[in-house]
Amino acid sequence: MTDDFLPNPALLPAGLRDLLPPDAEIEARSIEAMMDCFAGHGYQRVRPPLVEFEHNLLAGSGAAVSEQTFRLMDPDSQRMLGLRADTTPQVARIANTRLAQSPRPLRLSYAEHCLRVRGSQLAPDRQISQAGIELIGSDAVEADAEIVLAGAEALAVLGLTEVSFDLTLPTMAAMLLDSAGLPPDRRALLAHALDRKDAAAVTALGGSMAATLTRLLLAAGEATPALAALSEVDLPAEARVLADRLAAVVDAIRARAPALRLTVDPLEFRGIRYHTGPCVTVYALGHQQELGRGGRYISGEREPATGLTLFPDVILEAARAPALRPRLYLPAGTDAKLAARFRAEGYATVAALGDEVIDIAAEARRLLCSHLLTDGAAAPLS
Amino acid sequence: MTDDFLPNPALLPAGLRDLLPPDAEIEARSIEAMMDCFAGHGYQRVRPPLVEFEHNLLAGSGAAVSEQTFRLMDPDSQRMLGLRADTTPQVARIANTRLAQSPRPLRLSYAEHCLRVRGSQLAPDRQISQAGIELIGSDAVEADAEIVLAGAEALAVLGLTEVSFDLTLPTMAAMLLDSAGLPPDRRALLAHALDRKDAAAVTALGGSMAATLTRLLLAAGEATPALAALSEVDLPAEARVLADRLAAVVDAIRARAPALRLTVDPLEFRGIRYHTGPCVTVYALGHQQELGRGGRYISGEREPATGLTLFPDVILEAARAPALRPRLYLPAGTDAKLAARFRAEGYATVAALGDEVIDIAAEARRLLCSHLLTDGAAAPLS
Predict the structure, then answer these.
(1) Boundary (domain end) residue, out of B324, B345, B363
(2) Is there a domain that residue B11 lies in?
């Protein structure tokens, strides 16, 4: 017999998992702390539904996650629904329809779960938490800066200050590849070489752009020296506008948060989906997985917008765990008002349920309590 | 042309909706306030995944929501998944598998979204928020009382004190119908009459149970007189145990919360799914929809358990809205530290994004701000 005939009730599909105590509470509290930080910056929360008509869910920027989207049949409408794989397109839809008349710039926030058809080797989870902000209707450099600053502050609330924001220009590489005027197969080889950061191959394949591309590969790393190098590269006019924009965004961030660790990588274009301008990826020092990513896009095919999505699942692996309530065992017959007072003081009270208990301290320990109510006080258990 | 050819991007499937500002934030904060209250009573949070293997999701108590469960195909495992329509069965699964070795009684809590294939006329929403608690591994009267008391406290945190807990015994009616020994068609008519609370039909159809059933119909309403009436009804032994249990639960609740409004309805059995003992439905006075429901069941086919699920969507219609952050407009060039101070004081700051603004107060009003930063202070806008 195989597993098909012996179903295991504990078995979950690959990439899906149960969050157990205390992780589930830590996650929920951390998400709300980040959302509260976003609310402090004027971002107002929206909550789109888990599923929508496939046609709407995958329109516009949603098309980028079409292959990752689960479909289901709606017996009510007899139409196909999609289960969201990303929240940003839904927020853009809300901005573009129900909140079309709200004043711009429009600041929206969200904290949602998404489901994806496949996990990746680096990020095997198929259910993903997203906590994010979208700033819709402004093309200002200050808008790009604000999403980085609000993101940094939200991470700092969780104790994550050893973070790095990597700023990229994902449309830059394509722009320069176009300028090189190469035949398609050689262009593909060059793009692959850029992706690998293979300077020798870029020099060999780059044609008229070889020198520019090679210099740009070197204009990466810590923001100040990289931007100095970038400013000296001879770029086509369109690419120069992009590069200057990146420098202006870094200046605007530095003006408000001089100590924030910033790197730039002007030729990075992996993970590009619907982005049109400066983008950002957030890392915790010493951790490989991204804490979040975002950048500039067009909302509803007409409005300039930028946003940042943080990934709570990854963040919680890097953040310090918050202190949870100490657990206080209440023997049978404890006065209800006394119990309420301890809860108000921050204890989790664990009440006896009329069971026969001989050794109260042993019972409290068995129930994983840290304290025992003794003579009206919370006595720590050794 | 029909709507099929002119898709409306704002159109959502029936029973699904966007929560907009300020509702989405109010909902999230209210849920966390209730969860914090549950944590105060020692309930530890779990977070099951949105989807599971259909076979596991619909096992045990999950079978009750099988018809309401959306299915989807998992390309990874090539097996059918179910999208949860109820969270309690998932929590029971966790208790029974991953937390099988955790000490009993086990107190777990959750706050999740569920999706249902169909809405009802009274409750058309197909995406449902659930915030609940499960108390697994205790058959004590105090356990039944605790879930009511914790639920009442969670609602009180949201300002909902004008609530009523209606206690029922959903297995009582079937027990008495069995005792009546009626042919199936007459039994069905009698059950229908009980459901309609039609005393004349119950008397006519009740056979040997007519007098008992009619007296039980009258033993409903405010708990004290109803339980007094119930205590005098002559019941079969098994039904008497149930009735006495209900009285004991009311006593245990009254001992801790004498002012809590309690009603009983021993013959009520609508909405029964997997319940085996005393159950409860929560109402806000003057509101028709249920704020929550719960009761006693068997977890994992072997452990006595009880639980309560609150419905935040309904609760928020009845609760007073909490105060949200006042919005403070920050003109361009505002000092970053000053802005942070106002956020720490509880303002939402709305920063100018380097736009050309001539009339700052008008711009602040346009952005729906309540305050304007003037000479380093938050000046209210008329």
Answers:
(1) B324
(2) no
Domain that holds residue B91: 19-162+271-324
The token duo for B379 is 């000046």
- The tens digit of pLDDT for each residue in A318-366 reads 998 888 899 999 999 999 999 999 999 999 999 999 878 999 999 999 9
Spatial neighbors of A25 by CB under 8 A, at least 6 apart, are: A324, B35, B39, B44, B45
- B358 at A interface, C-beta within 8 A: no
Contact A15, A45 (CB under 8 A): no
Quick: pLDDT tens for A175-201.
999 988 899 999 999 999 999 999 999
- Nearest chain A CA: its distance from B222 CA (Å): 23
- Whether the predicted interface score ipTM is above 0.90: yes
Q: Is B124 on the interface with A (CB under 8 A)?
A: no
The verdict on residue A107 lying in a domain is: yes
d(CA B264, CA B268): 9
A18 touches chain B (CB under 8 A): yes
Residue-wise pLDDT tens digits, A164-180: 999 999 999 999 999 88
CB contact under 8 A, A142 and B353: yes
Contact call for A13 and B353, based on CB within 8 A: no
Q: Hey, are the CB atoms on A52 and B366 less than 8 Å from each other?
A: no
Nearest CA in chain A to B253: A336
Residue pair A19/A129 in contact (Cβ under 8 Å)? The answer is: no
Q: Domain check: are B155 and B36 in the same one? A: yes
The answer on A141 and A207 residing in a single domain is no
Nearest CA in chain A to B344: A40
- Is residue B362 less than 8 Å (CB to CB) from chain A? no
A162 in a domain, yes or no? Answer: no
Whole-number pLDDT of residue A224: 97
Q: What is the mean pLDDT of residues A237-246?
A: 96
Using the structure block, give the residue that is written with the tokens 């979040």. A292
CB contact under 8 A, A52 and B142: no
